[in-house]
Every structure is written in structure tokens, then in C-alpha cells.
């Protein structure tokens, strides 16, 4: 092993550690490694930036826009709601929901599908007294399985396609992966409808617990004659920057004042409604003239008077809020929203709201203005998954909505018939959407997750460094020394297992970019079809079922389902093993 190879290997190990321990956002960690490789001279500027012009990465950017347009149409939302009305039992509902969901995810980005459908499932379950936790992990898993069927099903497939083109190979066709993806999806869904359903926890949803335990979230105090500060503003009497509490409404006779501003005047007889960490209400009782109303009949639902919404949001793994306390991030002024409570691992964090340091997957209960969902539903900071007073999804006319779907189908047809490459078809679709004014350039920009693209583009540079220094070849030789005596089938299992392990620890696209150069070197040494190895790595990199952090859709349902880390292990590990065995055996028969 040369010094350059050792340097790159040490950098990779440090990168893995930083990603696993969440030292910084994943895109920042990987981009930092890329910059170090460039500054050290291992990569030239051209090699380091090659990922930013890669066809696969650019296709992912266009996929975000196309998926956003279809999501904006609201047709999937409407179809699912109508389809569920006729379901008879939980198992029947699962089949009705997850079979079409898998089909949709074969042609659309998984993340907007899960963000769109999570509120529908939550509300449907809560209306029927069914635990949402029985449905939300299967929602994520069903989209992951469906994404394995086509080239455009997930960004990972497109990234590997782009890498194959860089290797001088022809890349994937639209349905290259279907030979493995369809059987794996069928087997996976059967597991979810039977064994998986029994292994999932029976947790109450966030909003269900909120309705059952409103006194944990809301308190009322009355301003008496002894208050002594009539006519003073909220900030003057010390009610603005409370530790763990948030003054959300003032009831004055028949008048309701909300939102409460720092300049709002307090008067004798006012009823002050607080939310947050109610156990700290004792601090307020020290203020002379404030009396706790122990028999309050105010409920959080009573606050939804058209001016305030209750919103459930999940902190993203790409969020700029990570590693900061809520107070440090200036959450209230930044988003014009108050944090009522934070849930993590199915437990409410019992500390002062402002002091809580947010982590990926944290579920936030927010009090917001009526336009919050519309403004922030595409934010990179969190996924809005609320089913409470969410504005209507349908934003387009019926003609534009159907035109969006027909355009998507036309694009799929053009790629299937070989008239256009995936990149050209998506570029044409985006151009038509802009020309027809179905979306504006500003909306298109909001749909693109630039942090995800930075992560993917930076990963390409790291893969290039592995190839250039010979590290990929060295690792391939080590693996072959272990696997050769055991046969090709065992080598395939080794490649799958290693890729899958990486994807559970770091991001799926990064795992694919690191493993593909190693896989290509092994295919060259063994003189086998490299396309089979590429398909194997694509499936293994997508099959993230064991942790909530391995795949973004797992993280989205983490908080709303009230799951713990071990719930993913219990339900996901058997599915992961089933997918591994099915995939490897099919690939072995098909390509080798």
C-alpha cells in the first residue's frame, strides 16, 4: 500500500466516523473530504469537480423537479384518499395502499411520495383507531422497494448509471433493474403484509397522545387585580422569553388575541394560554397577580380558529438546525412558529424547549400561522408531515394536473422506446413544464435539494480518488483473496453485504459511489459481466431497512410513527435478509 492509498483510506475512515457520529451535515462532511483531496494534490481541480457535471447527478436534479410537479398536482393525494375509503380491514388497506405506492415510487422520487402520503395515512389510522406505527414504516419500505424497479426510481440508480457512463460502459436502461426489482418488491410486500405487520409496534400517534393528554401541553393563567402592572406590554412583564414556555393566546372576554406579540398589552381579567413544558409553570406563579386555572377547559384543538395551525414536522438529516439548541437557532423569529414539544424515540423530551439540541428524526409539534405549511413544506430543514389543518394539496387546475401526469408518462415512453436518454427526457419535461407555466422558475428551484446534489457530486470525487490512487483495486484484491476459495456466489454476497452495511451507516448514494469502483475492479479480475455487479450494488445501496438514518424516507416516518431505533431493527432486519438472498440469487442466475 502506497502513502497516497493510506492517506485516502484514513480520510475515508475519518469520513465514516464523522457521518456515523453526526459531527456535521453529511453533505458538508463529504465536501470537506473532497476539498482535502484536492488541496493535497491527489485530485486535480478538474477531477474533484467532475461529479458536478456528471450526467447521473444532473439527472437527479431534474428528477427532483419532475417529482415536485407531480406532487403539486395533488392527483396522487386524491387517488389514495378515494382508494382507501373502500378498504375493509387493516391488511386489506395495506394492500390497497402499498401496492400502488410501490408502483408510483418506481417512477417518482421516494421522498415527496412519503411526505405527501404520511399525513393521509396518519389521519386515516387515527379516524379508525388504528396505530399509525403499523403503517408508516411499511410506507417507507414500500417506496424503497418500488424504487428498485426502474432507473428513475431512486437517485442511487441514477448515480450508478452516471458512474457506469464514466467507466465507458453503456449504463442502465430504464428497466434493467426490473428483473431483480419486481421480484424483490413482491417478496418484500408479502413480508410486510404478514410477518412484518406483526413485528411492528402498536404506538399511538403524536396527535392522538396530544388529544388524550392535553394538560401536558397547555395551561391557563388568569391576570388578577394583584398583578399591579396594568397596561404593560408582554415583554415588559417578563412573559416573552420564558424558559420552556410559550404564550400562545390571550382570551379577553369574547376576544381572542393570537398570535401574541411582544408589544401586546396585558390587562386585568385576561386569561393567558401557555404551552410548552408545562411542568415549569411554577416559575410563572412567582409573578404576583397570576393565578393558575386548574380547571381549564381549553384544548389545543380550540386554538385552531383560522389564525393558528398545529403542525407536526420532522427534523431532516440535512437540516441547518442540527447541533444547535432551539433558542440558538432563533426558531420562533426564523419560522414565525413556536415549538410546543419535541419527541425523540417515542418519548417527549422533558426539558426546557429552548435548551433542546435537535437531532435528525426529532418530531416537532409546532404552533404556526396559516401559511406555514405552504412556505416550508419543501424546506431542507424539516419535513412537514402534519395532518392537522394542512392547506389543500391541490394547487393546479384539473387540466394542468392531468397534463403533468401525461407528460411524465410520455417521458417514460420515450426512454423505454430508446428515443431519448433519461437525462434528455427529463430535461425536455422540465422545459415543457416551465414553458406551459405549470411551474415557475422559483418553484423549480425550491424543488431541487441542493444539499443532496452537493453530497452526490462530492462523492464522485472521492470515488475518483479511490480509483486514481489504486485504493479501489487494493480493496478489491483483499476481498477476492477472502472470497475466491468460496466461489462467485459468496463473493456476490460479500459485495452486497458490504454495500448494504455502508448504506445503513452513511448515505445510500455515497455507499454506491464508494463500492462501485471496487466492484468494477473485482469484475475485471474475475472476468465477469460488470453490469451484474452494478445491478447488485444498486439494489444493495437502496435496500436500507435496518436503521432510520440509512434512507431519508425512514427518517421522515421516524417521529410521526413514534418509533424507536430498535423498531427498525426488528421489522427491517428480516426484510433486509430476504431482499439480499432474493437479489443475489436472481443476479447470479441472470448475469453470471
Automatic annotation (TrEMBL):
It comes from Oceanobacillus oncorhynchi. The lineage of its organism: Bacteria, Bacillati, Bacillota, Bacilli, Bacillales. Residues 205-290, 298-382 form the RCK C-terminal domain. One of its GO terms (cellular component) is plasma membrane. InterPro entries: Cit_transptr-like_dom, DASS-Related_Transporters, Na/sul_symport_CS, RCK_C, RCK_C_sf. Keywords: Membrane, Repeat, Transmembrane, Transmembrane helix, Transport. It is a multi-pass membrane protein. GO terms for biological process: potassium ion transport. It is found in: Membrane. This is Sodium-dependent dicarboxylate transporter SdcS. GO terms for molecular function: monoatomic cation transmembrane transporter activity. Gene3D superfamilies: Regulator of K+ conductance, C-terminal domain. It comes from the Bacteria. Pfam families: CitMHS, TrkA_C. Coiled coil: none annotated. The chain crosses the membrane at residues 6-21, 28-45, 57-76, 97-121, 141-160, 172-193, 402-435, 447-466, 486-519, 531-551, 571-588. The keyword Transmembrane applies.
Amino acid at each position: 500500500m502506497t502513502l497516497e492509498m493510506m492517506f485516502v483510506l484514513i480520510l475515508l475512515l475519518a469520513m465514516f466516523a464523522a457521518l456515523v457520529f453526526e459531527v456535521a451535515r453529511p453533505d458538508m462532511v463529504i465536501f470537506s473530504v473532497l476539498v482535502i483531496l484536492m488541496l493535497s494534490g491527489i485530485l486535480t481541480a478538474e477531477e474533484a469537480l467532475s461529479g458536478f457535471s456528471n450526467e447521473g447527478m444532473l439527472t437527479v436534479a431534474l428528477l427532483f423537479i419532475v417529482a415536485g410537479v407531480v406532487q403539486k398536482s395533488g392527483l396522487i393525494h386524491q387517488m389514495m384518499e378515494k382508494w382507501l375509503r373502500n378498504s375493509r380491514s387493516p391488511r386489506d388497506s395495506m394492500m390497497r395502499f402499498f401496492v400502488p405506492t410501490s408502483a408510483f415510487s418506481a417512477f417518482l422520487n421516494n421522498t415527496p411520495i412519503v411526505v405527501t402520503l404520511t399525513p393521509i395515512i396518519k389521519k386515516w389510522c387515527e379516524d379508525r383507531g388504528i396505530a399509525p406505527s403499523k403503517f408508516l414504516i411499511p410506507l417507507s419500505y414500500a417506496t424503497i422497494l418500488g424504487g428498485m424497479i426502474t432507473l428513475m426510481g431512486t437517485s442511487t440508480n441514477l448515480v450508478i448509471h452516471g458512474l457506469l457512463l464514466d467507466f465507458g460502459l453503456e449504463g442502465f436502461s430504464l428497466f434493467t433493474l426490473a428483473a431483480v426489482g419486481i421480484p424483490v418488491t413482491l417478496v418484500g410486500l408479502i413480508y410486510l403484509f404478514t410477518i412484518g405487520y406483526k413485528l411492528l409496534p402498536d404506538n399511538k400517534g403524536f396527535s392522538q397522545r396530544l388529544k388524550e393528554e392535553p394538560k401536558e401541553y397547555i395551561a391557563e393563567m388568569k391576570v388578577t387585580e394583584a398583578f399591579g402592572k396594568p397596561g404593560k406590554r408582554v415583554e415588559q412583564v417578563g412573559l416573552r422569553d420564558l424558559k420552556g414556555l410559550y404564550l400562545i393566546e390571550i382570551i379577553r372576554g369574547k376576544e381572542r388575541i393570537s398570535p401574541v406579540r411582544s408589544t401586546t398589552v396585558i390587562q386585568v381579567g385576561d386569561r393567558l394560554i401557555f404551552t410548552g413544558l408545562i411542568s415549569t409553570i411554577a416559575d410563572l406563579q412567582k409573578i404576583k397577580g397570576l393565578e393558575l386555572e386548574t380547571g381549564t377547559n381549553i384544548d389545543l384543538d380550540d386554538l385552531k380558529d383560522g389564525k393558528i395551525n398545529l403542525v407536526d414536522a420532522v427534523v431532516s438529516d440535512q437540516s441547518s438546525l442540527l447541533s444547535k439548541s432551539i433558542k440558538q437557532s432563533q426558531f420562533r423569529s426564523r419560522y414565525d412558529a413556536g415549538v410546543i414539544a419535541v419527541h425523540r424515540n417515542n418519548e417527549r423530551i422533558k426539558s426546557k424547549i429552548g435548551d433542546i439540541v435537535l437531532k435528525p428524526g426529532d418530531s416537532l409539534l409546532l404552533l404556526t400561522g396559516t401559511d406555514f405549511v405552504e412556505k416550508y413544506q419543501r424546506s431542507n430543514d424539516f419535513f412537514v408531515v402534519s395532518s392537522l389543518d394542512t392547506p389543500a394539496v391541490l394547487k393546479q387546475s384539473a387540466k394542468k394536473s392531468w397534463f403533468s401526469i401525461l407528460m411524465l408518462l410520455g417521458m417514460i415512453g420515450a426512454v423505454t422506446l430508446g428515443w431519448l436518454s433519461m437525462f434528455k427526457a427529463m430535461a425536455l419535461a422540465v422545459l415543457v413544464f416551465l414553458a406551459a407555466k405549470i411551474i415557475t422558475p422559483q418553484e423549480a428551484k425550491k424543488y431541487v435539494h441542493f444539499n443532496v446534489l452537493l453530497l452526490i457530486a462530492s462523492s464522485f470525487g472521492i470515488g475518483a480518488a479511490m480509483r486514481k490512487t489504486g485504493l479501489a483495486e487494493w480493496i478489491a484484491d483483499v476481498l477476492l483473496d477472502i472470497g475466491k476459495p468460496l466461489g462467485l456466489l459468496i463473493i456476490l454476497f460479500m459485495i452486497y453485504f458490504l454495500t448494504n452495511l455502508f448504506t445503513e451507516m452513511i448515505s445510500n448514494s455515497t455507499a454506491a459511489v464508494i463500492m462501485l469502483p471496487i466492484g468494477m475492479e473485482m469484475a475485471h479480475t474475475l472476468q465477469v459481466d460488470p453490469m451484474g455487479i452494478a445491478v447488485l450494488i444498486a439494489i444493495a445501496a437502496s435496500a436500507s431497512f435496518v436503521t432510520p438514518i440509512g434512507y431519508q424516507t425512514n427518517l421522515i416516518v421516524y417521529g410521526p410513527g413514534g418509533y424507536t431505533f430498535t423498531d427498525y431493527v426488528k421489522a427491517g432486519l428480516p426484510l433486509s435478509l430476504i431482499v439480499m438472498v432474493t437479489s443475489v440469487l436472481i443476479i447470479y442466475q441472470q448475469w453470471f
